[in-house]
Amino acid sequence: MGAYILRRLLLIIPTLLGIMLINFALVQFVPGGPVEQAIARIQGGGDVFGGFAGTGNDAADTEVTTGGNETYVGARGLPPEFIEELEREFGFDKPPVERFLNMMWNYMRFDFGESYFRSIGVIELIKEKLPVSITLGLWSTLIAYAVSIPLGIRKAVKDGSSFDTWTSGAIIAAYAIPGFLFAILLLVLFAGGSYYQIFPLRGLTSDNFEELSLLGKIGDYFWHITLPVLASTISAFATLTLLTKNSFLDEIKKHYVMTARAKGLSERKVLYGHVFRNAMLIVIAGFPAVFIGVFFGGSLIIETIFSLDGLGRLGFEAAVARDYPIVFGTLFIFGLIGLVVGILSDLMYVLVDPRIDFERREG
C-alpha cells in the first residue's frame, strides 16, 4: 500500500502541472485582461466589456498600441509610458512562458501573491470566504448521508413495494428540480417573499452575533444556514439513496446472507451485522469525494441568492475582473486538494474493507 500511495503522490505533480498549463494557455486568448480592466476603471467605465461589445463611447472604443505588439481597448488619452508601467506591475512585460514558470515556482513554494485589484493576499481572501463554503459543503453532505443511507436501506428491504415506488418518484423529482429554483421557492415561502418571514434573507450570522451568548450564537448560525443548506442539498439525495439501495440489493442476494438466515439469525442481525459493512463500502468510502464535490461545485448561485460571500462568488468575481492571482491561486489550491482527496478516498476503501489491495490490482 505504501508504494501505491507514493506513486499516487508523485502523479499529483504532472497532473497539477497539466491542469495549470491548460488553463494558463486558454487565458492568453481571452480578451479583457487585467491591463484592460485597469484602463476601464481609470477611464471611469468600470468594466472593459462594454468596449468590446461596441457599446462604449469613442474613448472606450479607441485602441492604443505599446511595444509594437500589445493592443488595448479604451486607452485613449493615457500615455504609452503609463500603459507600460501597468504591464510591468501585472507582469505582462515578460513572455507567457516565463510568466508561467515564475507562477508555478511561486505556487510550489505556496506563495500565491496578492490580488490585482483588492490589495490583499490570495490566502487571506480564501480564509475570509472559507466559513461560507465549509458551511454549505459540510452540512449538505452530512444531511444527504443522514437521510439517504437509512432511506436507501429501507427501499432495499421494501424493494418493489408501494413505499419503494413513491419514494423513488419523490427523490427523482427532487433531483430534477434546479437548485436555484428551489432556493427561490424557499425565499418566497419562508424568507418574507410573499408568505412567511421565518428565516433571514441574507448573511451567515446576524449583525449582533458577537453580543449573543454561546447558545444564542449556535441558534443564530443554524437559523441563517437552514435555507441555503436545504437548497444545496435537494439534488444530492437521489444519487446517494439509489446507490445505497442498489448496494444493499446486491449484497442481500449473495450466498452468505442466505447462510446467515439459515442459521436462524434475525433479519435485523443479518441486515446490520453482515450486509451493512459490505454494502456501505462504496457509499462510506466515497464521503471525502462527495464532500469536496459539494464544497467546490455548484455553490455560486446559492451564495448569490442568499447573499453569502463564499468561494463560489470569489472565483466568479475574480474571473470576471481577470484577477489572475485569485483565479490561478484558487485553481492550484483546489486542484491540489482534489487530487489529495482522491488518495484519501482510496485509503477509506482500505479502512472500510482491509481485503482491498490496490497494489495487487495494479499488478
UniProtKB/TrEMBL annotation:
It is found in: Cell membrane. Its main location: membrane. InterPro entries: MetI-like (IPR000515), MetI-like_sf (IPR035906). It is a multi-pass membrane protein. The chain crosses the membrane at residues 9-30, 134-153, 165-191, 221-244, 279-306, 326-352. Keywords: Cell membrane, Membrane, Transmembrane, Transmembrane helix, Transport. Residues 130-349 form the ABC transmembrane type-1 domain. Pfam families: BPD_transp_1. Belongs to the binding-protein-dependent transport system permease family. NCBIfam families: PRK15133.1 (NF011712). This is Microcin C ABC transporter permease YejB.
